[in-house]
Amino acid sequence: MTTLLICLLFGQVVSAQTPNATALVEQGIKDYNAGNFFNAIRNWQEALNQDKNNPSVTAVVNENLARAYQQVGENKAAITSLSAAIRDYGAVENIQQVGRMKSELAEVYSNLGQPRKAIALLCGQLVNKSKTSENQPSQEIKCTPESAEQIATKYNDKRGQVAALGILGEAYRLIGSYDQAIKYLDAAQQVAPEYKFLVFNSLGNAYKSRGQLRELQADSANKAGIFSKEQEFTKKSVEDYNRAYQYFQDSIKFARNEKQALAEMRGLLNLIQLGSQTNKSKFINDDEFNTTIKDALKVLKGLPDSATKVYGAIDLAYLQRDAKGTSPFTYCPNQLVLTGDNEALNLLENSVLTSKKLQDNRLISYSNGALGHFWECSPENEKALKNEKALKYTQAAIIAADNKLSAKDSLYLWEWQAGRILDKEKRKEEAIASYQRAFDTLEDIRSDILTAERDVQFDFRDVVRPLYQTLAQSRLDLLGVGAIADEGRAKELSAVVKTIDALKLAELQNYFGNDCILSALNPKQVGEVLKDNSVAFQNTGFLSSIILEGKTGLLLQLPNQTTKFKWIEDPNQEGTNKIVSSDKLQKKIAEFRTGLIKGKEEFSYNTTTAAQLYDWIIRPFTEDIKPEKVKTLVFIQDGFLRSVPMAALYDSQQQKYLVETYAVATTPSLRLTTPKARDRSTQKALILGLTKEATIDGKTFDQLFAVPDEISAVESIFPNHTPLIDDNFIPESFQQTLDKTTYPIVHIASHAQFGIIPEDTFIVTGKNQKLTISQLENSLRNLNSKSDGVELLTLTACETAVGDDRATLGLAGVALQVGVKSAIASLWSVSDQSTSELVKTFYTNYRKAGMSIAEALQKAQIRMIHAKELPHSEGINTSYNNPAYWAPIIAIGNWL
């Protein structure tokens, strides 16, 4: 939308009114209008050299150069030219034009996947999504005086205002702030009704994106059992889709009236995608869907050579009846709409020809990659010929994308595609090299892409995860083929560790939808971290898991030792059947978790499943982790393995739970953990608790009868404390208390829900209110700017959403997200006196000098395991030896 908006509002190249440069500028304009962009650039560069010291000339020439650079996909050069134009227009005090150039520059940044930079230019400040919601409309945020929006307003520049507000709305859509996006886009169409059709497409996309978010929220509410909330979100989702449908229809109508074929094409494509990515029976019936496709094909034929023509052809070629809503280049589509007479192939071949005429590397890359993917997925009988064509076009896409890195955001797709094709050709090492280049490229741009929080154009599960898994699996498979020298083996395993770690970081970042996680990131890789912190990591072993297609791998890392790798195998099976399939492991893990949760209903816990998992996961490494050498095991888990406590695995030979031999902790990534012991003798504690029944979003949370005892125990261990209980524990009082004093310990005894999306992650507070993850982050992040910030955050009585392993990311990531060093949390709610008993013992141990956090928890759990053997005077319930009572409490982050 934005490229078109700028083009139609003030995107024509302009003349310079000075004798020296006039001829060159005019010749450049002729070349530009004829599509000879490189000739235009040469002429304008020469004009710049002739009038270097005349800002009234250089401003105009730089403006023209920026547009020409964008036409050939040279965005970095365009940024340089626009920045120079802003400087030069400022020097001649043409402030209105300064504002317009800022809007153009913002558009380039937005198109490059950097919407936050765009927002800074357009308005000067970012409206934090966590501070606004539908129920609490955002306050009117005034943009800063030097921003593009304010300059346009001051000079009553209607075109400038529409451009600034339109691009601002689009940028907010890209970061997932859909309410804010709609607000700015509505403002854009009110400023100048004659240009309102230009923002209709963006408004349609904003409503569509919000509709998709609400579908996610409805799904999350369903899994949490809040059916009234599910119905509410479903209804709102349908309303948003209907609004999107109407805006796309209006866009098409206005574009036709104004004879704007490019705008009409955008509207038609958006309408088609709405029909294919949602349940089209609600919005677009089959006849209308097919008619719209015919209209789009007709308009496409009459379009001038342009980016819209290239992307339009590719979108239509890959159009599916039920699209996944993500890139079609990560899988082979099997229900293409255009199936007759090589329609799709013709469109793709024409897009390649058009992109070559335009000399735009980004378009050349995208069109060749799309055609390569067609041949990769083609069912053609001549397999060798098919792969040859697929590789030829894919390599052409890579060369174009790599040209001055003009299309880095698609380069990883084509390198990944090349790897898949080479894999089919059994060219394993070349395939791995391609996968590695795809991984390296994606790592470079991942933070910009993943922070587009809920933009379904980039879906983590469909793009990042399979690429990282494919690379890891290819390297691990290579280790099993032939003899690899120890040095080569260590190098391959090191690369696998880097890939797995990057996957876990990417998943966290994608879940929370921002880059706060990365602010705590250690720039060193895991192997370097282990070497640098040999004292901190002494007597500690790190067991990482990676769930791949068909099997699951485990990597053991010990300080200053070679990484060990094993596939999870069943020792009771023979030959090739020994490998435990990922499906079988997932079922066994689910069985283990269910057995633990229901365990307290049984007189005696059945350890059969716990023992089987111990044999699969721990026993293969017993020689490497002998208790005299390794005291603590830190688990870095993947997928469904996050949802279970490893401490409860059972060694049937020794007749001991794992936690009886090792202190156990977990972390999402070693690079996000700062292992450091602190003085705990004089720490203050902020104690927050809820004892009453509460209702949040239509869901009732039971009264927590054990909380008063738990609070009393914590208060006795930390004499220097501040309590906020029941009605005194609300978001406002929590914030105000933290503003006054720093508390190294924050203990929260209340229900905490971790949903499949961050919006459903919150802590239940007094007065039927909730403290959202965003509010918690904002409160604690200010506090943690101080050197003596929060050391330990404890959350008891947690509930994680059923049926989605991403929910436990909320649990594992919450401490890191809010900037605390360590967390103690419950994997599921144990609303019982047992939590109070465990927490009391843990904190007593925690205050002892020389005992790590993991050891303090270990000793507390062992005490409960041996409850039947303790003197009667200790008053502990003997049934607490059942892991249902002690296993769900886990240590996250810094274990020292």
Low-confidence region ranges: 130-139, 450-458
Number of beta-strand segments: 17
User: Would you tell me the overall average pLDDT?
Assistant: 84
**Alpha carbon gap, first and last residue:** 52 Å
Relative helix content: 40-55%
Q: Compute the gyration radius: what is it?
A: 30 Å
What class would the helix/strand composition place it in?
alpha/beta
- Classify the beta-strand content into a percent band: 5-15%
Q: Helical element count?
A: 34
How is the biggest beta sheet arranged?
8 strands, mixed
Global outline? globular
Q: Which terms would index this structure?
A:
eight-stranded mixed sheet
Kindly describe this structure.
- By secondary structure, the protein is of the alpha/beta class.
- It is 55% helix and 9% strand.
- It is built from 34 helices and 17 strands.
- The strands form four sheets. Strands 8, 11, 12, 13, 14, 15, 16 and 17 form an eight-stranded mixed β-sheet that branches. Strands 3-2-1-4-7 form a five-stranded mixed β-sheet. It has a two-stranded antiparallel sheet with strand order 5-6.
- The longest helix is centred in the N-terminal third of the chain and has 31 residues.
